[in-house]
Records
---
Amino acid sequence: MIYLDNNATTMPLPAVVDAMAASLRNDYANPSSVHQFGQSVRHSIECAREQVASLIGAKPREIVFTSGGTESINLAIRGALALRPDRRRIVTTSVEHSAVLRVVEQLEGEGYSVERVGVDSQGRLDEPHWSEALTEDTALATIIHANNETGVVFDVARFASVAETCGAIVHIDAVQSAGKVSIDVSSMAAAFVSLSAHKFHGPKGVGALYVRRRTRLAPLIVGGSQESLRRGGTEHVAGILGMGVAAESMRSEDPYAEVGRLRDSFEEAVLGAVSFAHVNGCDAPRICNTSNIGFEGISAEAILILLSEAGICASAGAACSSGSLEPSHVLKAMGIDERVAHGAIRFSLSRFTTRSELDQVVKLLPKLLARLTVLSSSARS
Ligand code: PLP
């Protein structure tokens, strides 16, 4: 198998699996229990909190553990707005992940006005529109850092400070960027930053929300007093420890140094081998592991099926939208030609991707596409 779907999820590191197995096997006490066994588990959670905080330049007490990126996003957006009833406007972008899109849509249904700032053909944010959209009545600005479909990176530090100047609370969806791009929340105007462990070789079902010191937040899940009353419920201890190990490894190793070079030569080789291939967002700053390539006139679903038969895992746009024939909202927002958008495949690499794997994909692609071209022209005739 050649796994090129790392923006959907990554393989947990062996050290993550070991830490989780040890936790499940041995350290099963409830971290809220006062006995020593419980307190040793509490101590492990606090160590993981330090590891996750260090990844983004935060203080440990600014980290709230959650069940993943989606919950962090919901908690930040709803939790912030609940304490801001005086302002009823949200500013976001047209290329957010569905976790942000859906909660913002819900809020729109509840009477908030929403401004979605667009992007250019390379996926770069319309900066003048972002500044104009941020009016004095804006409660919240929420913006994605690295796009999950194209890898395009927004200069969130700059956009956050524009937003904060007009008094908006800022949330950054850093689910795809954490670990790949250096993030220092201490020098950013963001009150909230969402993270998810399974995007950087940690486990699924665990994430974190950075909540800047002294930022008020209404919890979404109430119950016990866990996470300093910001997220009730007994902690997913093994997951949290796994996230800590993954964060530590991303911070200490610079695992992505080689990935960008591999991605660039992969794209060059695909463009050389397939005359109707287009790399979406290639002129914008991008995270180093993501390559969104549109094969003009060929259906992405058909390409994915043949890739899968050959043991190659990739995605059409976001994983959660594959299976639907609608072209991705991100490529639509970029104004990508429909024939290219319909054939767009996202190849996402990891630190474990090798040159030989990519060479095999490049070798296979022209043959696979030729088969599909024949099939689609005979279907037309
Ligand atoms: N935000 C972005 C940019 C993502 O790519 C994803 C997952 O694909 C999420 C949020 C949701 O994260 P999770 O899968 O941990 O809920």
---
Amino acid sequence: MNDFLGRGFIILTKAPRGTKDILPQAVGEWTYIEEKIRKMCAAYGFGEIITPVFEHTELFVRGVGDTSDVVQKEMYTFDDKGGRSITLRPEGTAPIVRAFLENSLFALPLPLKLFYIISCYRYEKPQAGRLREFHQFGIEAIGSDEPSLDAEAISLASAIFKALGIKNLSLIINSIGCPSCRGKYNAALTEFLAGRAGSLCMTCNERLLKNPMRVFDCKSPECQAALLGAPRLSDYICADCAAHFDKVREYLDSLKISYEVDEKIVRGLDYYTKTVFEFVSDDIGAQGTVCGGGRYDGLSEQLGSKKPFPGVGFAMGLERLLLLLHEQGAHLPGASAPDIFIANIGQGAAALSLSNALRKFNIAAEMDHGGRSLKAQMKLADKLGARFSLVLGDNEVLSGVAALKDMKTGEAADFKLDDIAPLSAAILKGKKTD
Ligand code: HAM
């Protein structure tokens, strides 16, 4: 690594593997996405919720499930100084259902519709679109098992993709039934796969004992080959679950949201029941699942509630969303540039107070804090992308008049410094015509 004089140096430590700094140049893109998300969530009646970054480990063990890869291999778990086992949240659904129960949010009109934009932590092998610290936007609608809610959740995800101009996303849906029909199916699948255990990988042999449907998630060609001719969940699904799934599809058809039913979609977290879905892209390599979600009708009881509060939700990975937007050449806002750069020659105090006066009008004003020459200040104004510049020297301060210069056209006009309104109006006008 070199410093700005080209001298080599070794930084004390780098950011941990699988984490990424979001630099000022990129923050504009994040805020742009978040604004679109917040606007759309408001239109769909979802209110924001913020929960802690860490939770008691048992929340995820019980909620996400001890047969999931997330709990078995990927959690950041440690004992705190009080000897309690703590885990950095690997996902948002279990914490939000916990908050729903703990804060008696069930007393509010149901379903309660919540959204969140959070960081998550999973100890996975980092690669493009897969990080150890990543960010999710997600929603949870809790307190109704109506299939219209599943369709509304899917249509919100779809509306957000549309608002961001994302193309070529496929929506894949499936129903994985309820514990009663899935129990029968699991027994049939286990019997089928037991005869092929020799061709399954080690992980799938474990899956066979604990959660055989997870074998569908395996990428190994041998395991996929072993699944050929396996019993189909749709042949085992009970009448209630089948009717629920039919309704979800009917609603999606009526909303003209196209989808494909894929029985191989089983999702990696244990709380799912009935509807599961994913939005997948071929444009960003192996980690193509941009959004995943589904119904979790038994989760509140898993977390201790006596009463069921069925729910449905999804989460999309913001890093994957950004990868996709870049891949598809979307126009994203860059770093924000100042509206005006106020250069000064020995008039630092005047430049400071003029900057502050303009900032009161919502104008982004910048000045030199590096003791630069006038020439270097103008170079800096250019580098920062300032729309206007204004020079304050002894003459300007004495006469009370300074020239506002448009950095693109070079046009300049004089303004009085003791009456800020016409000056700020001219700057704001320039801003609006951009
Ligand atoms: P998930 O499928 O585990 O579901 O994650 C949702 C999304 O988060 C993925 O589709 C992906 O875009 C992103 N994601 C997951 N892991 C990583 C990673 N290591 N690096 C970057 N992005 C990642 C859930 O988390 C559920 N809580 C979703 C849900 C909400 N289901 C119902 N409600």
